[in-house]
Predict the 3D structure of the following.
Amino acid sequence: NYFESKEELLKIIIKKGVDDLTMFFDRNHDGVITNDELEYWIDQTFAIMLKNTPFWKLYFSMVMQPQVMKHFEQDFSKLFGPIMEVLLLYFEKKGYEDPMVEMRLFFALLDGVGMHYIVDPENFPVEGVIKRIKEVYIKNNKS
């Protein structure tokens, strides 16, 4: 009753999710992400998921549907493209052999952790997994 169409509702859900996931990225908006900024973004991303698990269940269930993703593919590219470029630069500066692969792996890792937590919040060791992600990509990475 509150939306003109199912498509409008889907767009609002996806936009809110993307906005929540991107609002804490590159805090000083200089186009370069530091170790501290990456750690902050990881922390905030998962804090948002932990705070509103029902919304994220809905969000992930929507974006995992092929017809939804096909319909919103350009929106995702436009919204996540700049973040992907900044992360690519981050992994290049860190000296990774294939920064594009590392950036995609990093995104897939965050998505996967989020989905696993959403599916089984009582049993998934989210704090330990977040700590491990930070060890791999921030604390123990190449300067």
